[in-house]
Amino acid sequence: MKVVLDTCILKLATLPNEDNPAALILALATRGRFEWWASPAILDEYGAVLASDPEVLALVQDGAQLCHPLSVLSIIRHEPDNRFVECALAVDADFLITVNTARGHFDRRHYGATRVVTPGEFVNLSTVQRILEQ
Q1: Residues 71-75: contacts with CB within 8 Å, 24+ apart?
Q2: Over 80: is that where the pLDDT of 35 sits?
Q3: Measured between alpha carbons, how far apart are the two ends of the chain, in Å?
Q4: Which domains does the chain have, with CATH numbers?
Q5: Model confidence over 74-110: pLDDT tens digits?
């Protein structure tokens, strides 16, 4: 039986490379192993962050499902991070995956029902481990 994860929002703060879990997560996302969502504002941020790697940017732009949050939040001090929470709440995401868990960023463990995890925590989830074993 093919194991598929639930809904996720991925906040790429660094370029995925073989030395970090973001590459594995991006590979799982592009293989359709979990629902992966982004809003137009998130895609704009990815355009800036991933500009130096057009191949990864294209994977993100082509792979993420598009959502249009109806609410504008201001709960995180680092304003652009609010766009990720808006998207997570709009699609009822199970996970928001980010390395930015410092104060002023994603410093809560949950936003509504969405659990905030680092890429390392995500790849160590038992569900992800089962996918990797397939």
Answers
A1: 75/111
A2: yes
A3: 9
A4: 7-133 (3.40.50)
A5: 999 989 999 999 999 999 999 999 888 878 788 889 9
Residue 104 Rama label (left phi>0; alpha psi -120 to 50; beta): left
Element (DSSP H or E) covering residue 129 = helix 126-133
**Enclosing H/E stretch for 115:** strand 114-117
Rounded Cα–Cα distance for residues 35 and 19 (Å): 24
| Residue of 15 and 68 predicted with greater confidence | 68
Question: Left, alpha or beta for 11 (phi > 0: left; psi -120 to 50: alpha)?
Answer: beta
The pTM is what?
A: 0.86
Task: State how far the Cα of 19 lies from the Cα of 42, in Å rounded to an integer.
Answer: 24
